[in-house]
Structures are given as C-alpha cells and as structure tokens.
Design goal:
Its EC number is 4.2.1.17. GO terms for molecular function: enoyl-CoA hydratase activity. This is Enoyl-CoA hydratase. Keywords: Lyase. The protein is 45% helix and 16% strand. By secondary structure, it is an alpha/beta fold. A six-stranded mixed beta sheet has the order 1-2-3-5-7-10, with helices on both faces. A four-stranded mixed beta sheet has the order 4-6-8-9. The chain binds octanoyl-coenzyme A (CO8). Octanoyl-coenzyme A binds next to helix 2 and strand 6.
C-alpha cells in the first residue's frame, strides 16, 4: 500500500523521503513513523541505495510530534505501547542519512533531524524543543542528542525556555553542518547524498559507525574501535581499488556501492 504521509523517490543511488502531512506542518504521528521506518528498513538492505535524504516542506521539516494524537493519551497508553519507540529504527539505520531542514524543526521534528547523520539547513530553518510549553519534556532524544550536539548551556536554554533558534545560531552551535539558501536546499542535500553513495558502502557505513561510537565510549576505546574498523577495510576490494586508483591517477570505481 502506498504511504499516506510520506513521499518516496529514488534519485540514482539515493532514497529521498519527504514527510508529507502539510495540513499539520508534518507533525509526526504513528502512521508516519511506521511509513518512514518501513521504508528505511526496505532500502536499508537494498544494494542499489547508498544513502538517504529526509526532508519536509518549505514551511516545516516537522513541527513536532502530533499533539492531537498525544493529547488524549494516559500514562499506561504511552508506556504499554512504548509510544514512538519505533523511531529508533531510523537512528539505528546503518547507511548514511542527511536531514534537509527548511522551516520549522520543532520538538520531535528537531529530534528526528538529530537522528540523521548530519543536518543541512535552509536559511529559513528554525530549531527548538518547545515541549515545555505543553507541560512535558523532549521524548525522542532532545535532552540527550541536543546536549551532545550543542552543549549544556544552549540545550538547557532551548529545553527550558522553549524558544526557537534560527539556522545561523544552529550552525554556530554545531547542530547543523551547513546553511544554504532555501531554494538550493534539496539539490545541495541530494548532491551530498549522491556523493556519499558513490563511495564504498562498507567504508561509509563504518565511518558512520565510528563517529557514532565516539558518543558512547572513552577516547581510548573509541580510538581502538576506529583502528579495528580501519584495519578491517583492508579486507575489501574497494580499499584495493581506491588506493590503486589514486596511484594510477584515475577515478576509483568502487564495487561495493
Ligand atoms: N501537532 C499537531 N498539529 C500541529 C502541530 C503539532 N505538533 N503543529 C502544527 N499543527 C497543526 C496546527 O494545529 C494547525 O492545524 P489546524 O489548521 O487544523 O488548526 C496546522 O498545523 C498549522 O499550524 P498553525 O496554524 O499553528 O501554523 P502557524 O504558522 O501559525 O504556527 C507553529 C506554526 C509555530 C510551528 C505552530 O504550529 C506550533 O507551535 N506548533 C506546535 C509546535 C510544538 O509544540 N511542537 C512540539 C510538539 S511535542 C513533541 O514534539 C514531543 C516529541 C517527543 C515525543 C516522544 C514520545 C515518546
């Protein structure tokens, strides 16, 4: 069945996923979560796909979790359904994912962008964790991933005041990797994703795994982990191809893409 809240387009080796609930500024509901997670599960194991771009509309990447879905729920509903737990499948995806953010990325929307590997922001982007204004707190990683990305001072400021920060502040703080004019957002994100998807897939997957590992372990353990992965890549044909191509002054043609 075709997804209702998501558009899926395959552009070369990139899967472009566009959140599509314009009537609710792409508020994240359970249906959208299932559609996104089913889609990343499908293309996550598809050899023809090397990277993903997750985006929204010009006005909103996503204005948060769907408040209307959550409003009638009680503690037992949330706890027993482990509400919104499935989004972790996106965070656990092994292939690279770029968030292309235009307009609002608030609450769960900001948290969803932070589950991706990096964020490219339009100059119109606005990030925030306004849950406090609803009598709750971030629940999809805002207190954890945002703090790791921007540090305690700004994370506390955003989570406690509920204010929004614009793209420039987000870039200064380290939340986004680059800012582009709104009209160039998608082509920039797709070009970056296509570039990534042209490299050796085991190498891009290991690069992602190694960077993510740095959030979990000591420096010593992280360095050891990185070195093990580095050594292991010498078992791949793509290492032979990549280094031979450099020596022979030609473009590498990676096999495992
Ligand atoms: N949920 C449901 N509907 C929404 C949401 C949302 N988060 N955001 C916007 N909408 C709807 C509005 O209700 C409105 O619908 P309608 O026309 O039927 O009334 C439509 O989208 C357009 O919105 P506005 O008219 O409000 O548009 P404005 O341009 O005036 O304002 C804002 C844009 C500032 C973005 C405003 O819509 C807003 O403040 N939205 C809510 C932002 C927010 O508080 N987000 C956090 C939600 S809580 C959350 O994300 C928790 C995540 C953790 C879950 C973890 C579970 C374990």
């Amino acid at each position: 069945m075709a997804p209702k809240s998501l558009r899926i387009e395959i552009r070369g080796r990139v899967a472009l996923l566009t959140l599509n609930r314009p009537e609710a500024l792409n508020a994240l509901n359970s249906e959208m979560m299932d559609e996104v997670c089913d889609t990343v599960a499908k293309y996550g194991t598809d050899d023809k796909i090397g990277a993903f771009v997750l985006t929204g509309s010009e006005k909103a990447f996503a204005a948060g979790a769907d408040i209307k879905e959550m409003q009638p729920q009680g503690y037992m509903d949330m706890y027993m359904s482990d509400f919104f737990n499935r989004w972790n499948e996106l965070a656990a995806l092994r292939k690279p994912v770029i968030a292309a953010v235009s307009g609002y990325a608030l609450g769960g929307g900001c948290e969803l962008a932070m589950m991706c590997d990096f964020i490219i922001a339009a100059d119109t982007a606005k990030f925030g964790q306004p849950e406090i204004t609803l009598g709750v707190i971030p629940g999809m990683g805002g207190s954890q991933r945002l703090t790791r990305a921007v540090g305690k001072a700004k994370a506390m400021d955003l989570c406690l005041t509920g204010r929004m920060m614009d793209a420039e502040e987000a870039e200064r703080a380290g939340l986004v990797s680059r800012i582009v004019p709104a009209g160039e957002l998608l082509e920039t994100a797709l070009a970056a994703a296509e570039k990534i998807a042209g490299f050796s897939l085991p190498a891009t997957m290991m690069a992602k795994e190694a960077v993510n590992r740095s959030f979990e372990v000591t420096l010593e353990e992280g360095l050891r982990f990185e070195r093990r992965l580095f050594h292991s890549l010498f078992a791949t044909e793509d290492q032979k191809e990549g280094m031979s191509a450099f020596v022979e002054k030609r473009k590498a043609a990676f096999k495992h893409r």
